[in-house]
Design goal:
This protein has helices at residues 41-48, 119-123, 126-139, 156-167, 181-187, 200-203, 216-223, 241-247, 251-271, 284-295, 312-320; strands at residues 2-6, 16-19, 29-39, 61-62, 66-74, 86-89, 102-106, 110-112, 147-150, 171-176, 191-194, 207-212, 226-234, 274-277, 303-308, 327-331. It is α/β, with parallel strands linked by helices and 333 residues long. It folds into two domains: 2-125 and 302-331, Medium-chain alcohol dehydrogenases, catalytic domain (Quinone Oxidoreductase, Chain A, domain 1); 128-277, 3-Layer(aba) Sandwich (Rossmann fold). Strands 3, 5, 6, 7, 8, 15 and 16 form a seven-stranded mixed beta sheet that branches. The chain contains eleven helices and 16 strands. The model has no long low-confidence stretch (mean pLDDT 96). The chain is globular. It comes from Devosia geojensis. This is NADPH:quinone oxidoreductase. GO terms for molecular function: oxidoreductase activity.
Length: 333
């Protein structure tokens, strides 16, 4: 089958378009004929080598963390799905590879595509939807009336997280450029801050939850807008000791992560708030709950641009530029 292959780590390295063997279908797997694949910042960070200490893939391998397509084969233990069904997934770590014509995914990571979505729209959802769900529902347990600050509201995670937080009943603030103010307001943002001309830490206060996706300086400022007992959840780092334990990383890497996150953890403790690092995980059950919200009209897909399969490198470059409004998708089939 055809796929885009990372032969070696490198800053903005090009993926090679070539042939690889069809995936091996294990007992609990479904084999998906890929129709579309979402493109994420995580793909870029893995390609660049930033995640080697915690996600040690060995090149050559196929990138891609979001898939939507049709099941063409099921493993001997599969009971939840059958051939011919339209499904989508965020394949679990260690088994990525959506930038290809086919991918084998554990049935536990898969959900039926919402009936209201195209394949391209469906491929835009899994990683950002699960990230928002695990941050706001699982970790923060957002309740009606709470105040939630979501950074970079016009990005992939931001466009989904705004909608989910609003669905949960929160008052939602976000940052974006002036050109995207109307977009984030249409998604449900109550307060939209132009990051180029306004300082969010001078405008916001008394917040319950911050979803951080920016640099360490922005992370530090975010602590200051939280009320005591609040929580800042970062999807851009630094990883904390709790994450190292969950991932069962070796003690040396765990020590490095402890030191790297010590400053922000101390700052959070002094402010009487919590700090948590989130690297989202595959979860078909949660994805099915997200599907129900989509079909009910509570949240929707936000797709900026669709690239043909042969232009996967161009799609990654577009994501790298940081100007996408929502998600970028590769149309494979």
């Amino acid at each position: 089958m055809k796929a885009f292959i990372l032969d070696s780590y490198g800053k903005r390295a090009n993926l090679r378009f070539g042939d690889v063997a069809d995936p091996l279908v294990q007992d609990n797997d479904v084999l998906i004929q890929v129709h579309a694949a979402g493109v994420n910042q995580l793909d870029s960070k893995i390609r660049d080598g930033e995640f080697k200490p915690i996600l040690p893939y060995r090149p050559p391998f196929v990138l891609g963390h979001d898939v939507a397509g049709t099941i063409v084969q099921v493993g001997s233990n599969v009971t939840r799905f059958s051939a011919g069904e339209a499904v989508y997934a965020r394949p679990r770590d260690g088994r990525i590879g959506a930038f290809a014509e086919k991918i084998a995914v554990d049935q536990a990571d898969v959900a039926i595509v919402p009936g209201s979505l195209t394949m391209e729209e469906a491929a835009s959802i899994p990683l950002v939807g699960l990230t928002a769900w695990q941050a706001l529902v699982e970790i923060a347990k957002v309740k009606k009336g709470q105040k939630v600050f979501i950074q970079a509201g016009s990005g992939g995670v931001g466009t989904f997280a705004i909608q989910l937080a609003k669905h949960l009943g929160a008052v939602v603030a976000t940052t974006t450029s002036a050109a995207n103010i109307e977009l984030v307001q249409a998604l449900g943002a109550d307060i939209a801050i132009d990051y180029r001309t306004q300082d969010f830490e001078k405008i916001l206060s008394g917040y319950d939850v911050v979803l951080n996706s920016q640099d360490n300086e922005t992370l530090k400022k975010s602590i200051g807008i939280l009320k005591p007992g609040g929580i800042v959840i970062s999807i851009s780092g630094p990883p904390d000791p709790a994450f190292a334990r969950r991932q069962k990383l070796n003690p040396l890497i765990g020590l490095v992560l402890r030191l790297a996150s010590s400053g922000i953890r101390r700052a959070a403790k002094r402010a009487g708030v919590r700090y948590a690092f989130l690297l989202m995980s595959a979860n078909g059950g949660q994805l099915a709950e997200i599907s129900a919200l989509i079909d009910a009209g509570a949240v929707r897909a936000t797709v900026d641009k669709i690239f043909p399969f042969t232009q996967a490198n161009e799609a990654l470059a577009y994501v790298d530029a940081g100007r996408a409004k929502g998600k970028v998708v590769i149309k494979v089939r």
